[in-house]
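Lecture 7 notes: from sequence to structure.

We start with a single chain of 154 residues. Read the sequence below before looking at the structure.
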Amino acid sequence: MSAIGQSKKENIAEYILHLWQMEDVVRAFGNDEALQQNDFLADLQEMMRSEGVLEKGHVQLAENALSEMEELHDELLSTQATYRAAVMQLQPQLNILKSKSDNPTQSDLRMMFVFLYNIMLLRLKKHPVSDDTESIRRQVTSLLAYLSKVYKES
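Now the structure, written as tokens:
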């Protein structure tokens, strides 16, 4: 099993966010020769090229992992009252985030990932994050950590 495959099983949420970040690295480097010095990034660039996501979007690896998370999310919503309650508690904030996004019809789970990824980008740029946003981040992180744990145990 490859290192990236191991990290998917260990923590699928981190795996997805890591792939998204590496896609942005590939986009930032473009055709720079430095990218070719790293086998993973060179392979990812080729994958992005062949899948038509060099400018925007995500490789099928990331989309498949997100689909697996969606299936688990849906299953837990229908079988675990505490999980359902945690999602319901976040619902108003997710609806606001979706209404402000480029894709207001995206799933709650995808919105959680987009939200976390955007916070990561803000922090990389040393932009402040409000207390309210930080509170939502903690809730989303907790929910995705639980999903990742259940995924790992399956």
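DSSP finds seven helices and no strands in the chain. Keep this in mind for problem set 3.
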